[in-house]
């Protein structure tokens, strides 16, 4: 091979390397770039950009344009194999043919062929695969903007060939009983969305509070009335036979703006509720009348009703309080609109809330005082643990769970749940008022 041929071949190899790197960079840029980022970039411009519109089209029709880049990579690979291997082998053959090596021709050709393939493979992998791939992963949008225009025209030129390849591949995939990539939907699961959002928080693209609201929103859809209700043992009720003046006294004592009204002082017989506005207005007329005069209707819902449906019920009936009933029709508890809002926004304290009323309060670095009325869901979420068989249990509170699983427990005893030690505090009347929870180092 003369010097003119060697020079020409080297120029072809270098140009092919550049094109191969271009197609690999384009391939990874297309995969890494997100349509939302491109649309946001377009929205910030005063005048729409043709290049950005083309980039959006490419990312939207990902399978088609990935096939285009693969065609380009394949063409470059064929050229490098055809020209490059022979050129490097010829150079090595000339070098090894020098008298100082004293090698016969068969050995020279074998060594030249092996070393030529290894060298060409090394440079091809490093310069046309790894380097452009890393660049595209690091700056996908900038890379995509750089390759968009030439890739667009290459796609137009080779479109018939790309279409033929895609159609052939889709036919084979369908024969195997699967859907082609362009027919399947790119849908993310809840866990994938949360995982991506956590990465966005780490990268500074998303506020931690936004992630918190997102996690609560997903949890919100999985909860039912029983999970967030105020248990019947905590309800303050008033009998229907009491007067408006009696209800006002109870209102001033408890500061609850709405009070459930029952018959025969039985919480299983909730008739409705009274509103403090109605009570005060009626007192100005006659405060000695029965509560039936100002009684308002309160809807009921089963324990298993999703809280999204409970909220819809409140909105449709324009009643901010709902009775939760068990399978036998007895009262399990109530849900207020505030209970639902707090599932999304966290604890919302108003003028009558006592800051010391937290169900879980920190004592020191690894110890907490936990109220027995704390729901199992809130306990698991706060301490990031899962209590065994809690999902299959009918109990709602931590106290109920412990008593249900440890029948012979006594005050002062310590039990282990998950990675926590729970010391029983204030055990009276078959109910545990509070626990001292100690977190164990893993």
UniProtKB/TrEMBL annotation:
<dbReference type="InterPro" id="IPR046342">
    <property type="entry name" value="CBS_dom_sf"/>
</dbReference>
<feature type="domain" description="CBS">
    <location>
        <begin position="229"/>
        <end position="289"/>
    </location>
</feature>
<dbReference type="InterPro" id="IPR051676">
    <property type="entry name" value="UPF0053_domain"/>
</dbReference>
<dbReference type="InterPro" id="IPR002550">
    <property type="entry name" value="CNNM"/>
</dbReference>
<feature type="transmembrane region" description="Helical">
    <location>
        <begin position="144"/>
        <end position="165"/>
    </location>
</feature>
<keyword id="KW-0812">Transmembrane</keyword>
<feature type="domain" description="CNNM transmembrane">
    <location>
        <begin position="2"/>
        <end position="210"/>
    </location>
</feature>
<dbReference type="InterPro" id="IPR044751">
    <property type="entry name" value="Ion_transp-like_CBS"/>
</dbReference>
<dbReference type="InterPro" id="IPR036318">
    <property type="entry name" value="FAD-bd_PCMH-like_sf"/>
</dbReference>
<dbReference type="Pfam" id="PF00571">
    <property type="entry name" value="CBS"/>
</dbReference>
<feature type="transmembrane region" description="Helical">
    <location>
        <begin position="62"/>
        <end position="83"/>
    </location>
</feature>
<dbReference type="InterPro" id="IPR000644">
    <property type="entry name" value="CBS_dom"/>
</dbReference>
<dbReference type="GO" id="GO:0005886">
    <property type="term" value="C:plasma membrane"/>
</dbReference>
<keyword id="KW-0129">CBS domain</keyword>
<dbReference type="Pfam" id="PF01595">
    <property type="entry name" value="CNNM"/>
</dbReference>
<feature type="transmembrane region" description="Helical">
    <location>
        <begin position="103"/>
        <end position="123"/>
    </location>
</feature>
<keyword id="KW-0472">Membrane</keyword>
<protein>
    <submittedName>
        <fullName>Hemolysin</fullName>
    </submittedName>
</protein>
<keyword id="KW-1133">Transmembrane helix</keyword>
<keyword id="KW-0677">Repeat</keyword>
<dbReference type="GO" id="GO:0050660">
    <property type="term" value="F:flavin adenine dinucleotide binding"/>
</dbReference>
<comment type="similarity">
    <text>Belongs to the UPF0053 family.</text>
</comment>
<dbReference type="InterPro" id="IPR005170">
    <property type="entry name" value="Transptr-assoc_dom"/>
</dbReference>
<dbReference type="Pfam" id="PF03471">
    <property type="entry name" value="CorC_HlyC"/>
</dbReference>
<dbReference type="InterPro" id="IPR016169">
    <property type="entry name" value="FAD-bd_PCMH_sub2"/>
</dbReference>
<feature type="transmembrane region" description="Helical">
    <location>
        <begin position="6"/>
        <end position="31"/>
    </location>
</feature>
<feature type="domain" description="CBS">
    <location>
        <begin position="294"/>
        <end position="351"/>
    </location>
</feature>
<keyword id="KW-1003">Cell membrane</keyword>
């Amino acid at each position: 091979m003369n010097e003119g041929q060697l020079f020409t071949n080297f120029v072809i190899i270098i140009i092919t390397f550049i094109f191969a790197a271009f197609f690999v960079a384009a391939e990874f840029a297309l995969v890494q770039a997100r349509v939302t980022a491109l649309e946001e970039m377009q929205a910030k411009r005063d005048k729409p950009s043709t290049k950005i519109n083309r980039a959006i089209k490419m990312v939207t029709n990902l399978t088609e344009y990935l096939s285009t880049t693969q065609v380009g990579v394949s063409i470059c690979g064929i050229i490098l194999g055809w020209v490059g291997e022979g050129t490097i082998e010829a150079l090595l053959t000339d070098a090894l043919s020098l008298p100082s090596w004293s090698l016969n021709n068969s050995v020279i050709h074998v060594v030249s062929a092996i070393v030529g393939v290894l060298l060409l493979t090394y440079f091809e992998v490093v310069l046309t695969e790894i380097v452009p791939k890393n660049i595209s992963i690091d700056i996908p949008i900038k890379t995509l903007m750089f390759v968009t225009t030439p890739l667009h025209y290459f796609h137009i030129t080779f479109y018939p060939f790309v279409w033929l390849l895609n159609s052939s591949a889709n036919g084979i995939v369908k024969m195997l009983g699967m859907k082609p990539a362009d027919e399947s939907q790119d849908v993310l699961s809840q866990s994938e969305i949360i995982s991506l959002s956590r990465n966005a928080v780490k990268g500074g693209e998303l506020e931690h509070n936004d992630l918190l609201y997102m996690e609560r929103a997903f949890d919100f859809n999985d909860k039912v009335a029983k999970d967030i209700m105020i248990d019947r043992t905590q309800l303050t009720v008033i009998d229907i036979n009491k007067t408006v003046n009696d209800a006002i006294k109870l209102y001033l004592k408890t500061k609850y703006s709405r009070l459930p009204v029952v018959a025969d002082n039985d919480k299983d017989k909730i008739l409705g509720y009274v509103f403090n506005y109605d009570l005060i207005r009626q007192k100005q007329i006659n405060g000695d009348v029965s509560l039936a005069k100002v009684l308002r209707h309160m809807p009921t819902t089963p324990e298993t009703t999703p809280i999204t449906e409970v909220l819809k019920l409140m909105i449709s009936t324009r009643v901010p309080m709902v009775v939760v009933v068990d399978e036998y029709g007895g009262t399990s508890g109530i849900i207020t609109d505030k209970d639902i809002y707090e599932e999304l926004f966290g604890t919302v304290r108003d003028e009558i809330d006592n800051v010391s009323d937290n169900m879980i309060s920190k004592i020191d670095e690894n110890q907490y005082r936990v109220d027995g009325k704390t729901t199992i869901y809130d306990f698991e979420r706060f301490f990031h643990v899962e209590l065994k068989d809690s999902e299959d249990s009918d109990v709602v509170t931590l106290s109920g769970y412990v008593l249900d699983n440890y029948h012979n427990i006594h005050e002062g005893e310590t039990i282990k749940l998950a990675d926590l030690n729970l010391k029983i505090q204030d055990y009276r009347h078959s109910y545990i008022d509070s626990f001292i929870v100690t977190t164990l180092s893993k």
